Amino acid sequence: MPEPGDTVLARLEALRGGDLPTHGGRTLAYVYDSGLAEADRVGREALASFGSTNGLDPTAFPSLAAMERDLVAFARPLFHAPEGAVGTVTSGGTESILLAVQTARDARSDVESPVMVAPSTVHGAFHKAAHYFGVELVTVDVDPDTMRADPGAMADAMDAAGERLVLVAVSAPSYAHGVVDPVAVVAADAAGRGVRCHVDACIGGWVLPWMAHPDPWDFVVPGVTSLSADLHKYAYTPKGVSLLLYRDPALRRPQFFASADWPGYTMLNATMQSTRSGGPLAAAWAVVAHIGADGYRALVATTVDATRVLADAVRGTEHLRLAAEPDASLLAVACDDALDVFTLSDEMGERGWFVQPQMAFRGLPATLHLTVCAATAGGVDDFVVALRESVDAAVAAGPVTVDPDLRAAAAALDPSTLDDAAFDGLLALAGLGGSVDPASAGGSTSAGGTVSVPKRMAPVNALLDVAPPRLREALLIAFLDRLTR
Ligand SMILES: *Cc1c(COP(=O)(O)O)cnc(C)c1O
């Protein structure tokens, strides 16, 4: 007997009960809430009505090509892109970045071992692109006072890469610290070497155009050749949409892929996916049309005001400081030795606020990441109360410590020598061992190692924080492997 539709939908809703809330403004990472119920409805209905359309062939679904052209046309003036600029709708920021890197690589097929240069704060998607496409990523330490790219050091790295350099990347702003890199200088240095410069405006692309930012960061800078801006972030559209823009069609050309080398239809793709749902694109088209430029201006004003209030509250709270002066709508909060950010994050969680811990990296401190969105604005006073209480609680508890022997052992471990059993042991040691809760997983656990997520993450995070990056990666991959068995 088929399960009645309503029963299935009720079970689906119940599963969602264990998730972070996507609306209400109390989740300060992963999700973006405009607080506009009508915009949500428009997005949801467009998503549903185009969910079965297929972007595989734009001649079969001309509506999708039309919506893509419309979105690019809307975005072009926002980023001061010239008349001839072109763009592609992708599934997200990571895909936009992967494609920008693949395109830069393939535009220079004469280069045998290609290199790209970026500040150390550049998004992990560039590391993924390096891994997928065999482009070496050289990251350059940022100025520790501002967390911005250091143009002199970037230029030195460009020189060191020499003829192998195919791409330079900067952020507007960076995810971890919310600051805009000195785009004009870096892009000029790239252009002077005849090399592409990509601006990662994945998170800032739908914020910066509507606020006063003193320094140019988009296509107004002549050396900028491509730019990514996610609609599923501050355009407040359902997940699965980002824009990748190029200054001219020739720059985009190597992004396209065709294959006639098989007996089926000739494959012709602009992006990594082949069959792709028209749902997210239609939803983005509808939400952008509904909110419009004036709507976004108002949402950005609300968001930036809220960010300012939160930044002032952090400055005014003993033991806390901002890791960088924010340029847009993101904050990175650091603390002194009286507490640790991981405990602070747990304490905020207890009070119904999700803030995202970020580990220490190359001399930069561990921080809490806050993505502020329009719906958070109404709750900033509550947030500040919760933050002050959480600081008091975290100070009272004292910073979590990692046993020095464990720290030394972690530093000495070579993850490539570890087998499955060793990872099971390490995950248990890290506090991630145990069985998956069958109620929340909706099924039984498999044989082999199992994992669980503890309510208080501070001890786990503190341990991961002292693990060298390669070990941390290996441990989390082992965790994911077990979570998905
Ligand atoms: C979110 C983000 C990305 C990656 O985007 P996804 O949509 O998560 O794939 C890249 N760069 C920056 C600066 C981001 O904030």
Automatic annotation (TrEMBL):
Q: Which family does it belong to?
A: Belongs to the group II decarboxylase family. Sphingosine-1-phosphate lyase subfamily.
What name does the UniProt record give this protein? Glutamate/tyrosine decarboxylase-like PLP-dependent enzyme
- Keywords linked to the UniProt accession: Lyase, Pyridoxal phosphate
GO terms in the biological process aspect are: carboxylic acid metabolic process
Indicate yes or no for the key word Lyase. yes
Look up keyword Transmembrane and say if it applies. no
- Tell me which residues bear N6-(pyridoxal phosphate)lysine: K233
Q: Which organism is it from?
A: Pseudonocardia endophytica
- Cofactor annotation: pyridoxal 5'-phosphate
Signal peptide residue numbers:
none
Identify the InterPro entries for this entry.
GrpII_AminoAcid_Decarb, PyrdxlP-dep_de-COase, PyrdxlP-dep_Trfase, PyrdxlP-dep_Trfase_major, PyrdxlP-dep_Trfase_small
List the molecular function annotations (GO) for this entry: aromatic-L-amino-acid decarboxylase activity; pyridoxal phosphate binding
